[in-house]
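DATA SHEET
Item: assembly model
Revision: 1
Owner: S.N.
Input lines:
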Amino acid sequence: MTAGVLTRARGARASRIGGNTVLRPLVVFTLAVILAFFAMIYSRISLDRTAFELHQIEQEFAAQDRVHWDLRLELARLQDPKRIDAAAAGLGMVYPEQRITIEAPGVGVEPSSGTERWTASRSLLTEPDQ
Amino acid sequence: MPGPRWRIHDLRVIALGVVVLLAWAAIGYRLFQVQGEDAAALSQRGVDQRLRHEEISPKRGTIYDRDGIELAVTVYGSALIADPKLIRDPALAAALLAPLIEENLADLTIKLDGDSRYVRLTGALEHTEAALLATAIEESGLDGLTLVEEPVRIYPSGSLAAPVIGLTRLDDGSGIEGIESIMDGALAGRAGERIVERDAAGRAIPQGEYLIEPSMPGSDVFLTIDREIQHTAERVLGLAIEQTGSLRGAVVVLDPSTGRILAMASLPAFDPNDRTSLLPEMLRNGAVVNVYEPGSTLKIVAVAGALEMGIVAPGTVIATPPEITIGDETFTDAADHPRIMTVADIVAKSSNVGTIEIQRLLGNERHYAFLDAFGLGRPASIDFAPESAGRLDHYTRWCRSTCGASAAIGYGIGTTPLQLAGVYAAIANGGEWVEPHVVSRIVGPNGDQITSEPRRRRVISSDTARLVRTMLQQVVEGGTGHRAVLEAFTVGGKTGTSNKFDVELGAYSADETIAWFAGMAPIDDPEIVAVVVLDAPSGQLEDGTELKFGGASAAPVFAQIAESALHQLGVAPDRG
């Protein structure tokens, strides 16, 4: 009786699974659809995450660009002749009443060769007369 | 056997079933309405609520000096905007904001308690200020306050070259004066367009932006202005105006070989960053708009013309009586001189009588031709708007009697300081007039450069120009221009003093003058030409010389500016 029951059970199982040729591919298909669904969700999340990161990078770039221009503006302000004038006056400096021009040999003249450049430089290193 | 009887219990079940059915039917009908019938309209409503068409403002181009230092630049600041409808406690919000934005508490409370949906509380704030404000608002949890990014035009050097650079409108950022105006087309760029999804609070939804057309930033404009020379010109001119009590003044410094304007000062001027004290007169660039009679500075044209035509030579002797009467007008000289003088001496001593005689030899027609060729009677440059053409009547409209004589000594003709600088630059440049210009190049957002070659025309020969320069040197070294002498450089130039025409009186003023000095250095191969003009200087020097004369007031200004400019340009001294 037990063998008969087992046989019947096996047979019944076989009929539930192996025997039903429509059910197995259906299960596989369903599993595939579910997996694809989750894969789609995951890829969408990745895409959104990347888009957010891109947006953040763009925001950072814009912020750095603003900082860049703020620094250039600050540099231009610092180089304002009027500001330097006022700062110099505050330190007690004045415009010279007389300008004294010292002509240094070789300075301001473009020599054509390395030898000439060296000669011009050496002339600047000449010991002053005692 | 009798059929089944409907019990009350069954009727209730049926009734409940009918109700449920009806409810589902109603839901189904509503679903059909929303998803079918009204779907398009509701979808469009949703889109309209979320999607906004927005213009992308282009970044305005930058204006640089010749060394590439910014003179005008657009940066982005944040303005604080309030929506009073969303502010639950205006008093609390005002108490928080008033010290931060330096606004009166009572005024601010009134602004925040209004019915408007948009109240601007500040102008564009700089980065650090805006960040502090944003933190304070976030920590307080107040609604209805937003920081909106907007462009602001900054002029980091303040009033330096302000009449040349100009300024922009506060509302739409377009240029209204100077280079900002005339180069507005290049500086402005082109606006773009985008669609942005915004939530109910007006915040942009990330990834909800769709670019239709990107904006094109404006081109950058590089000027020929040298900031150091410009600053010196403004500083020295300012001091001269103060010391002489002049109404206004202008200085132009040119590179004669290229026509590049190294400095152009016009005072009184303005600070484009501070519009509270702006007056209309300050916006005028006096160097290109104000027209004056040039007086003796224009004598050089008649002399140059006569030399060029071979009518006279520097050593030609001309009779120079103390006065000369033409028609009903008598022309005299300011100082005594010999009864006969050479052409060179006539120029050195600035003799009116001698110059009139030379002009008579030249003739009105040829004199006019030279005045025209030297650039008088028309705008000198395309880089300025507005620019006055000055005044030069065609010689056929000159009166037969005195007009030629008046023109010879610089009366009856109107010039701007820039036009006169062009005249002297032509003499400095070997007789070739070069169009003065202040725009060096335009650089597009893609890096492509646009430069334009200035107009040139030969006016006199290089030999004539050299002779004229030699005579101008004598003016400075032994004549009326001795206060323009420089220790390290040879200088040539001409003083000028013209009586100011009083429009109300309809006659020339006896006291008020226009004082000029136009000069160049070094004399053999001039690197700079500078013109100085002072309107109605007064007072005296220590030696009693009246400052109303160009030689007393304008010549020293030239000397200081020229010396500084030559050193700045690295020009080697040519005097031992």
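QC remark: The radius of gyration of chain A is 44 Å.
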